[in-house]
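Bug report (template v2)

What were you trying to do?
Predict the complex of my protein with N-carbamoyl-L-aspartate.

What happened?
Run completed; filing so the output is reviewed.

Input:
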Amino acid sequence: MSLRGRHLLGIEPLLPDEIVALLDLAEEYVSLNRQPQKHRETLAGLTQINMFFENSTRTQASFELAGKRLGADVMNMAVEASSVKKGETLIDTAMALNAMHPDLLVVRHPHSGAVDLLAQKVACAVLNAGDGRHEHPTQALLDALTIRRAKKRLHRLTIAICGDIAHSRVARSNILLLGKMENRVRLVGPPTLIPAGAAELGVEVTHDMEAGLAGADVVMMLRLQRERMDGGFVPSEREYFHRYGLDAAKLARARDDAIVMHPGPMNRGVEIDGTIADDINRSVIQEQVEMGVAVRMAAMDLLARNLETQTG
Ligand code: NCD
């Protein structure tokens, strides 16, 4: 069970076997996390630094908990996005951190490609916790684990990814992962929020929610990511909810056993009706958060095994 690369920067370079291996290991950590005693020494002696140049609640908490449960020394650097001047400053920060000999560096950054750049400058393993609208690999992996547990498989499913696709690294990483595992992916949203060239990613595209949800096994909702929009992409939130918000009537078009997902943070009444989000028979949103810790434990465990191979 291993990953070929030194870093986890995106889903793009992963092979289907690596994805399956990581998810299988994560299953073991799901069981561990449900025990009262959750501590392991897998990462004992290693130093993990979390560097978030962008706001985060669940991803940062989840990486921190994952590292602590595996016995790493974990440090959180809260970096104010506004104080970051791209390019040189990022590299200077990276070099300074590198001098402190971390083993695992978890990075979130508002610019696409920034985490890859940083990974080229440091000696440790880098995990991408989201870079701009590019990739968010651990999110796609935790989504995959959630889907696999609910549907008992991770292939030949119809998955509708709905809403602000254009600004979403979650959508991008999910499209890549679900495509590698041979699923049918549909992107659903207004034309302004579907990226140009989406069809080249091997997905179906529709601007009509009811058509997009028809027969879906999985309905994945996304937040309107206003921090990445310059100008108005939607007429009004009310209008948006009317056409693209997930409510019971629209969900009725999906399969009877379809699950509802959302990476969080959720805007109730904008992209999703609160009643659907809270419906324990349909919504797996809390399960996604639980899987997040397990997937991050598995990712760090596998990358740490490669560190050992390199040094000795
Ligand atoms: C997502 C992100 O940061 O890309 N959130 C997350 O990691 N759980 C999605 C979002 O911010 O809407």
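What did the reviewer find?
The CA atoms of residues 161 and 220 lie 5 Å apart. Strands lie at 47-52, 73-78, 104-109, 125-131, 158-162, 184-188, 204-206, 218-221, 259-261.
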